[in-house]
Structure formats: structure tokens, C-alpha cells
Write a structure and sequence with these properties.
This protein is α/β, with parallel strands linked by helices and 473 residues long. It has a domain of 196 residues: Periplasmic binding protein-like II (D-Maltodextrin-Binding Protein, domain 2), CATH 3.40.190.10. Helices cover 43% and strands 15% of the residues. The strands form 6 sheets. It has a 5-stranded mixed β-sheet, sandwiched between helices. A hairpin with a 2-residue loop joins β6 and β7. It is globular, with a radius of gyration of 23 Å.
Length: 473
């Protein structure tokens, strides 16, 4: 409650400041920002409208250009290629930054950070996993290009009325000799084999009984992303690849890292096959290659799946009674992991979320004002407000504060998962790599190819493309 009151006081104070007239010499400056149209960026705009006042004394307005997710990359890329110089800030998926850095559109921030103690302190407060994934290019280098706008990891959303049901728990124990996970602590012990058991167990037909009720339609056990669009299968498959001891092409080891023999290693094939095997316990839309992050979320909200794995950025809908049939029956947990040869649970996964970056064509004054927006967004008060309203904090001083895990029910999992996050490639060839990989993954998901055939094709394509680009010797 203390933190909530602190945030509320900050909002009230900021509102008073906004209402105060700027000095006569103040300039009117608009910071135009390209951003995907979804909750985290909508909140940023609304909160800026209510609270933001530039410390410079200028009359600064943050104006976000909201772009639908399916066309977001294409719209941003078109703007960059056109030379229109429209945006001062861009919310960029981390995978894109290499393209626009090498294109000369994204601004390197090292000198600015070195000269600004406040900015340097913020960077130190940002979780290092987020800085590595969102800001560095080359990937894992010391070159800094951005700061987190919306950190994101995957979490499990599950039905407490099913997983904590005494009769269902007893039947699960009898069938698999395992405990049906009910609490957060129970889920920490769940590996992919148990996830598969859960999926099999909760597959029910219309007319069957579920938690003492007779079903009027088919019910499904589990789901995770398996969509052909954008990265809506790669984002989940990479978790299986890494946890299985395999790897994607390692851009941090150029030009020595290879694709052939790595991307299609025996370990990678086995991991991908594991991913494919578990799809049978999902709603049949997976067979079409269209089970993306929005589809599984909608099906869960409709009460048709026992548990899903999805981004925490989409989690708030499940507990909103205006849109969810299971709002009072949903809890959150860490996704399953893999038990390694040492008996340890490993949870490597593909980080989600986005940084925001500055563009290169602005005056020093506009750059200063854009960085003031960054500082405001990553201030403790703003990050607390963001977390309380469904976002996830990027700074350790908020994530580690007492009460943070109580702000939203997925916060604990998010914080504990951050050290396990890795990322896609950041190189300019990213979009070609991803598009071909998504097509091949889709062929395996829809039964047109085996796991090995798909990975062999991906490895060969990546080897040729990256060799031609000079990234593989």
C-alpha cells in the first residue's frame, strides 16, 4: 500500500506540474514515437499526457504513432527507407536494431550516457538481461543503442478451478503418479514431460466431466504459440532448442560460428520434435499453422484450455472479467523447463518485449528532450505505475522492492525468469532468417516435413545467406 500511495502522490504532483504554465522562453517540442498498438504503449501515452513535464522547461509533448502489430515492422522500415525523418523515438523489437543501426537511423548512446550521470545510473539500474538483449549491437557488445520500453517474458496462465480441484488432482496422481500443480511452487517443478501429461489429462470431449461439470463442447489441455506469422513459433521453439543443449546460429562468434551442423544438430532435432509432439494436446487450430499468441490467448479467455504459455504482456486480459470467462479462476506460474544431465532444471527461453531507441537526424536539443522522456519512463515512480497497471518493470530498484510481486500476479515469474533469457539474432539479415525459418517450422507443424527436414533446410539457408553476407567464413 505504501508503494501504491507513493505512486499516487507522484501522479498528483506531476498533474499539478503539468498544469503550471511553462516559462515564457519555453519552446514547443513534439517527440514523435513509432510504437506497436497495444496496452504497454497505450498506457505510456495516457500516462505521459497526465504526468510528463520536461525538466528543461520546454513544452514537450510525447505523440505516439500507434501501428498495428502485423504491419509494424513494415511501416517502420518504410519510414526509415523513405528518408522522411518522421520519428524521434522508435519502439523496436530487439531483432531489428542491427538493420537500422547499420542503415544509419538509430543513434548510439554511449557518449550521451558517459556525459549524463542520471542516464548512467538508470542504465545501471536496468536488469542486465534487458540491456544485453535490447540495447547492444553487435549483440553482447558494449555499444548501447536503447533502453527498455516493455520488458517481456513468457508465463503460464492456468485454471485454478481445475488444477486445484481435489477430484482432478486425485485422478492425475493415479494416472501419472505425479502431483497436479496447483501453487506457484508446484509449477516450479514442472518439466516438459509433465506439461505433456497435463495436456493429455485435460483433453476432454463434449459430454465428458471436467471438475464435476458436464462439458457441452470439447476441451483442450495445453497450448503455446505455433503460428506462421512473424515469430509466432520461433519464439517458443527456441526455448526447446536451448534447453535441449542445442543452439541457434551464434552471431556473437562471427565469423567462426556455423549454421550447418549447429542449427540442425541431433540435439536440435530432438528438441524440435519434443515441441511438435506436445501440440497434439492443443486446440486443432495448431494444425493450420495459425495458433499464434493472440489465438491461444483468446481460446484461454473463452475457457477452452486448461493452461497456456504466453507473453506476460498479454496476461492482464485473463483476469479482466469484462473479457475473460476465467477471470476469477486464473493464476500464473513459470513455464516448464528441462532437467539437464546434472539433474538441474534449466529454463532458457527467448526474451520478448521491446526497447525504444533514438533516431539520428535530430538536433541536440531534440535528442536531449527524447532522452528526458527515456529518463521519465525509467524513473521509479513511472515504472511503479506501469507495473501496477499491468506492465512489467525494467529497473531492479522496482523489481526488487517489497510488494512488487503483489502488484500483478505474473510479476514473480517474470523477475525469476529474466536471468534465463536469450534472444534472436540482431544482424540486418534477421528478417530473411526469420521468414525462411518460420516457413520451415510451419511445414513441420502442419505435417509437410519432419523436424529434421525442416532444420536441415533452415541450416542450409542460413549457411548460404550468412556466408554471402560475410558473417560466416
Amino acid at each position: 500500500m505504501k508503494q501504491l500511495l507513493t505512486t499516487g502522490s507522484a501522479i498528483a504532483l506531476a498533474g499539478c506540474l503539468v498544469a503550471t504554465a511553462p516559462p515564457a522562453w519555453a519552446k514547443d517540442i513534439t517527440i514523435q514515437m513509432a510504437a506497436p498498438d497495444w496496452g504497454p504503449t497505450r498506457f505510456m501515452q495516457e500516462y505521459a499526457n497526465k504526468t510528463y513535464k520536461s525538466p528543461s522547461g520546454n513544452n514537450v509533448t510525447l505523440a505516439i504513432d500507434f501501428i498495428p502489430w502485423p504491419s509494424f515492422y513494415e511501416r517502420v522500415a518504410a519510414s526509415m527507407a523513405s528518408g522522411e525523418e518522421k520519428y524521434q523515438l522508435v519502439v523496436s523489437d530487439s531483432q531489428w536494431i542491427g538493420t537500422f543501426i547499420e542503415g544509419g537511423q538509430f543513434l548510439k548512446l554511449n557518449d550521451r550516457i558517459a556525459a549524463d550521470q542520471e542516464l548512467a545510473a538508470i542504465l545501471q539500474d536496468v536488469h542486465p538481461a534487458l540491456t544485453e538483449a535490447y540495447a547492444t549491437y553487435p549483440y553482447k557488445s558494449d555499444n548501447i543503442y536503447g533502453f527498455p520500453q516493455m520488458p517481456d517474458t513468457k508465463v503460464v496462465s492456468f485454471r485454478t478451478d481445475l488444477f486445484c480441484h481435489e477430484g482432478e488432482a486425485s485422478a492425475f496422481k493415479e494416472k501419472f503418479d505425479k502431483k497436479l500443480p496447483c501453487t506457484y511452487e508446484d509449477w516450479v517443478e514442472v518439466d516438459w514431460d509433465t506439461w505433456g501429461n497435463i495436456g493429455e489429462f485435460f483433453m476432454r470431449k463434449s459430454g465428458d466431466t471436467l471438475a464435476g461439470e458436464t462439458l457441452t463442447e470439447d476441451f483442450y489441455g495445453i497450448a503455446y504459440q505455433a503460428g506462421k506469422g512473424y515469430d509466432f513459433s520461433s519464439g517458443q521453439i527456441n526455448a526447446f532448442i536451448w534447453q535441449g543443449g542445442a543452439s541457434i546460429w551464434d552471431e556473437s562468434d562471427q565469423p567462426n560460428a556455423q549454421a550447418v551442423g549447429v542449427v540442425n544438430s541431433d540435439e536440435a532435432v530432438a528438441a524440435f520434435q519434443k515441441y511438435l509432439d506436445l501440440l497434439q494436446y492443443s486446440p486443432p487450430v495448431w494444425k493450420t499453422g495459425q495458433m499464434d499468441i493472440f489465438q491461444i490467448n483468446d481460446l484461454y479467455l473463452q475457457g477452452k484450455i486448461a493452461a497456456i504459455i504466453n507473453w506476460n504482456a498479454l496476461s492482464s486480459a485473463a483476469v479482466n472479467p469484462e473479457v475473460s470467462k476465467v477471470a476469477d479462476k486464473t493464476a500464473y506460474a513459470m513455464p516448464p523447463g528441462t532437467i539437464d544431465a546434472n539433474g538441474e532444471m534449466v529454463r532458457w527461453d527467448n526474451i520478448g518485449g521491446q526497447p525504444f531507441v533514438l533516431t539520428t537526424w535530430n538536433s541536440d536539443e531534440v535528442v536531449d528532450e527524447a532522452l528526458n522522456v527515456v529518463k521519465w519512463w525509467l524513473s521509479k515512480d513511472t515504472q511503479e505505475a506501469f507495473a501496477f497497471n499491468g506492465g512489467t518493470a525494467a529497473i531492479k530498484s522496482v523489481m526488487n522492492a517489497p510488494g512488487y510481486n503483489d502488484f500483478k500476479p505474473w510479476n514473480r515469474a517474470h523477475v525469476e525468469l529474466l536471468p534465463w533469457q536469450k534472444d534472436f539474432w540482431h544482424v540486418p539479415e534477421f528478417f530473411e532468417l526469420l521468414t525462411q525459418q518460420q516457413e520451415e517450422f510451419d511445414k513441420a507443424i502442419t505435417g509437410q516435413k519432419t523436424a529434421k527436414e525442416a532444420l536441415d533446410s533452415i541450416a542450409a539457408f542460413q549457411q548460404d545467406l550468412l556466408t554471402e553476407a560475410g558473417r560466416i567464413d
